[in-house]
Automatic annotation (TrEMBL):
One of the GO biological process terms: steroid metabolic process
Species, as recorded: Amycolatopsis taiwanensis
One Pfam family named in its UniProt record: FAD_binding_2
Sample GO molecular function, one term: steroid dehydrogenase activity, acting on the CH-CH group of donors
Key word Flavoprotein present: yes
Protein's recorded name: Flavocytochrome c
Length: 471
């Protein structure tokens, strides 16, 4: 190991690997520390879906799109509460970063995809132009490609080593300390992921997650301990993205990501405390958690016996036996009529009866005049109409945003991925990206692929600028 590196990267997930590869491509000597025994972090656990505009994949499918349209959608969805310069840079660089990944060996076939498991182009969120690029072999595949590129470009990777702190010298960040050893560097990239697994940091920077109480479960990688916040405190870094993160709506009995937990039945209706339907049950999580939160009380997923009975086997939680067991235990409500179910749920019976009647008049016939769910189902490639809700017994399972995927608060960065201090001035020698580098991920997740695109795009940007010593 050389004892003086051009660039040290902290963290070997998507952002760190992209930073390391792009810095090495520019001729920098690069050392990457990863705290766990293998590379990948949350990126490796993800579908690898990547939101980008103006790509070759879109062009091959005849879709006209641009970074400007992406920018407009991104800013509007986030009510212009993000830094336009940073978002402009992100939107402009996301497409070229996807092309860079394709050049390295990531495969995104030019075909229409219905979901995050099917390689191709899918609807990522609530965008009018589809931007969700799903790679072959998902996040795991992306990490493998980047790890190979890092090896072939001479990046030195040290596993099982958690960086403890930053070193500063003459007003710049000049290296790190790991395993008690000082490692000098021309620039440091913090890419240590988020803080989903640190309850104290959640209380400080994303307290909304703790509202789920005992129902909260975390799917982010084990290394998501919030070390970026501690590094930032050391050098007076600004914090952006405070109070934001991604919580997905789940039934209270889910404890795993839906690939393992399974999916609720298609024939279900979500109702609020007034017994009214209030959303498209398949709405993107770009907006679904916000809609559920806005109901201001308990929300229920209502379905019938046929829906329970026909749940596919093999999933850990959404299967016929688990639903029966939950009902037996009294945690999922079960009743022989809709009126009785309403009584148990504490919602007006006449409203719930009317809701189910109206749902039955529309959804099983392929049309949803109220919430346009037929459009979402079509975009997912879901051909069959939902069955009517009519076979007793009826069930109601509590639904809430409780699956913590990622956190958005981190070190405030600019469009070059340079970290700013509390006054808004750049901290020389310090870059950050991914969940650690904040400002791109906003209050509203723009859809599947937002976080992976952020990690890889800003990671690549950080690596380029760290190598070229722009600070
Ligand atoms: C199950 C799941 C599915 C998801 N699906 C998608 C999706 O399809 N599309 C999407 O856009 N987003 C998705 N996300 C979110 C997305 O994957 C992450 O936000 C993104 O990949 C984070 O990348 P990152 O590089 O910032 O962090 P990570 O990939 O978590 O990498 C950070 C790395 O830093 C290491 N580390 C931490 N502290 C230190 C330290 N002190 N020293 C050295 N190393 C350290 C960690 O061990 C980790 O390996 C998903 C997340 C999960 C958990």
């Amino acid at each position: 190991m050389s004892d003086d590196w051009d660039v040290v990267v902290i963290g070997g997930g998507g952002a760190g690997l992209a930073a390391a590869v792009s810095a090495a491509e520019r001729g920098a000597s690069v050392l990457l520390f990863e705290s766990e025994t293998e590379l990948g972090g949350s990126t490796q656990l993800s579908a690898g879906m990547f939101t980008a505009a103006g790509t070759s994949v879109q062009a091959e499918l005849g879709i006209s799109d641009s970074a400007e349209k992406f920018f407009q959608h991104y800013m509007d969805l986030n009510q212009w509460q993000l830094n336009p310069g940073l978002i402009g840079a992100f939107c402009a660089n996301a497409g070229p970063t996807l092309e860079w990944l394709i050049g390295l060996g990531v495969e995104v076939p030019a075909r229409v995809s219905g979901n995050a498991h099917m390689p191709g182009l899918c609807q990522a969120g609530v965008e009018d132009v589809w931007r969700g690029h799903v790679p072959k072999d998902q996040g795991y595949g992306v990490v493998q490609v980047l790890a190979k590129a890092a090896r072939s470009r001479g990046v030195e990777v040290v596993l099982n080593t958690r960086v403890e702190r930053l070193i500063t010298k003459d007003g710049r960040v000049a290296g790190v300390v790991a395993d008690g050893i000082e490692v000098p560097a021309g620039a440091v990239v913090v890419a240590s992921g988020g803080f989903a697994r640190d309850e104290d940091l959640l209380a400080r920077y994303y307290p909304a997650a703790l509202r789920a109480g005992a129902d909260l479960f975390v799917v982010a990688a084990d290394g998501s301990r919030g070390d970026h916040i501690r590094f930032g405190e050391q050098v007076g870094a600004g914090v952006a993205g405070q109070g934001w993160g991604l919580l997905l709506p789940t039934a209270y009995f889910q404890r795993l990501h839906h690939w393992q937990s399974g999916f609720p039945p298609k024939s279900r209706v979500y109702v609020n405390g007034q017994g009214r339907r209030f959303m498209d049950e398949d709405a993107s999580y770009a907006v679904s958690s916000g809609i559920i939160d806005a109901q201001g009380g308990t929300v229920w997923a209502v379905f019938d016996e046929r829906a329970r009975r026909t749940l596919p086997p093999g999933y850990a939680h959404w299967n016929a036996d688990v639903v029966s067991a939950e009902a037996q235990a009294g945690r999922t409500l079960r009743a022989n009529s809709i009126e009785e179910l309403a009584g148990k749920a504490g919602v007006p019976a006449d409203a719930l009866v009317a809701t189910i009647r109206r749902w039955n008049e529309q959804l099983p016939h392929g049309h949803d005049a109220d919430f346009l769910r037929h459009r979402t189902l079509a975009n997912k490639g879901s051909a069959d109409n939902p069955d009517p809700i009519g076979e007793a017994p009826f069930y109601a399972a509590r639904l809430l945003p409780a699956e913590l995927v990622c956190t958005h608060a981190g070190l405030e960065i600019d469009g070059r991925a340079a970290v700013r201090d509390g006054r808004g001035e750049v901290i020389p020698g310090l870059f950050a990206a991914g969940e650690a580098g904040a400002g791109v991920l906003g209050q509203r997740y723009v859809g599947g692929g937002n976080a992976v695109a952020n990690a890889l795009t800003m990671g690549r940007t950080a690596g380029q600028n760290a190598a070229e010593r722009v600070l």
